Amino acid sequence: MANPKPEELVQIQYPTPSKGWMDPAVEFRKGTYCYSALARNLNYLGLPNAREWQPFDADWKLPPDWKRIILDGMKERLEKFRSFRLFMDICVRCGACADKCHFYIGSGDPKNMPVVRAELVRSVYRRYFTLSGQLFGALAGARDLTEDVIKEWFYYAHQCTECRRCSVFCPYGIDTAEITMIVRELLNLIGCNINWVLEPAANCFRTGNHLGIQPHGFKDSVDFAVDELEELTGIRVDASINRKGAEVLLVVPSADYFGTPHYYTFLGYLALLHEVGLDYTFSAYASEGGNFGLFNSHEMIKRLNAKIYTEAKRLGVKWILGGECGHMWRVLHQYMDTMNGPADFLEVPVSPVTGTRFENARSTKMVHICEFTADLIHRGKIRLDPARNDRWNVTYHDSCNPARAMGLLEEPRYILRSVCNQFHEMPENTIREQTFCCGSGSGLGTDENFEMRMRGGLPRANAVKYVRDKHGVNLLTCICAIDKATLPPLLEYWVPGVDVAGIHELVGNALVMRGEKERTTDLRGEPIDQKEVAHA
Amino acid sequence: MAVLSRETILEYWLERVLRSYPGQGAKFLAGERDPFRNPAGSTMRQALGVLLDELSAGMDRERAAEALDSIVQIRAVQGLEPSQALEFIFQLKEILRPQLDGPERELVEGRIDELALLAFDFYMKYRERTYQARTNEARRRIFVMERRQGAGGAQEWQERGGI
Hints:
The complex is a heterodimer. By secondary structure, chain A is mainly alpha-helical.
């Protein structure tokens, strides 16, 4: 290595922060927080301290004994969750997680380093639950619990999307997402929650899905999709609802039958399951795979998840198939079995088409549609014409939860390579276990939080930009309903010219159905042979 | 008259720009060179370098505009006031002033002013893009309902700029 020139040895001083990290004061700037939950939603769910307030108000109208409630809540959780106590005690502040958070990378705010974000809670833990903290206070890294600390917790616990990228790098395996979950639970005890989480949760509790769609609305949506699919393919599929005795219950995120580009993925499921003759039914109550309880409290996860096994039992199915969704799969894979199982009334899932027994789902009895489809392709049970996706030059975003919470890394790629001709991976340190979050997960995908989301999503968008510029990629595929809602505006801002789609949309495009009419358009109604310029 | 190398001027400039970020954050943004681990910092470093080269050499306006655009895109959504978001251009004047003399200084300062005007355009472009993206996002959420009701239909929406 050549010696540096003298002028290059000039010492450049980066200024230290004007205040220490222990100072909890935060400024709620427009565009960087989510609005508070409406009182009616708290009331509907029976949650405490329903009132009118907003994060930017000086007075948050906390209950008079808020401090006792929080400390009692911490004590209860330290005893109940060994992981929480371990995470409070074990961190050596090595900093391996520091630069792994997309919010830190995008914003440069030190309190968005996972270690510091967790330290905001640990300092309170030390002050009230450790001898050294009680004796030595700030010297031992302990802080008093004040209203400003509550505001700071609220601010930063809602700048963590619970994506768990940081935990991949922690040598101790500390799962910072779980710390965020506990902080949100604690805040929930004194009514400091956000509407984007609680409104879907309240809707879900009432109608079974986040959007509050009632059974007749659900049926209308499914019927509409069946009609549209018939127009596109010439084939009328049977998508039954609440049909007792079906072999399989299909549970999808509600955005699949309401939002775009999710809807095209939904059409893809309908086409595929018809083609292989799966005997399945939807449930008008288990009409939501997603579970915003995950972003609120463990109790809420359990309450909202209960419908899935209940409906499977009521309808008498053998096993459950789940659609493309992110956090839905963290709940199904890691919590459902112990919270609402055992589902001993169901059978270990076996694909009736291939005979494959899904041993990995032996306990939960629920199979991911990518596992199901990859198996179909592997056994040669469906005919595919990847050329029908030739207008797309595809890359794949590993949605955080399927990738990191359930290890679903190969199946989506295997499917993509079978259904399209042009596929390029993003750089290695931005995919698979190291995938970057969309920046809007865990209930943060709100309109009012838009600017923060653009910052948090920069690392993901930056990797997309790289493959757009290098390979001409014009489609980002993913298997998460939140991704499908929030990546389009992210890319619209950072990487114009790249669209977003679910994997089963491309499967639906490529699928050669028996008896189909000549396909002139894809599921979006766009001409199949049209090649688009990658980007303007 | 020039006594500082390009690299040193660039480091000074980057350091001034990064002062708008909290302490520890600035260190990371300046230090981490992997463009995928540090997209904001590496984009700024790379783009400031291009701007410096273009200002002091032939001033390829297209290349300079592209570099400026990439910095403003980041700073337009970082919670900065517009004046703060764009002050980095003027900070270069202070750094270069002792380095340049007479007509050379006038030339470069004129070019910096030209870039500053262009930066206003980019800043507004990106703010407007956030409004457009927010509107489109809201429309996507009720896509099926709108389509079912046949209100205008997808075609018309596309014509209005949605996807």
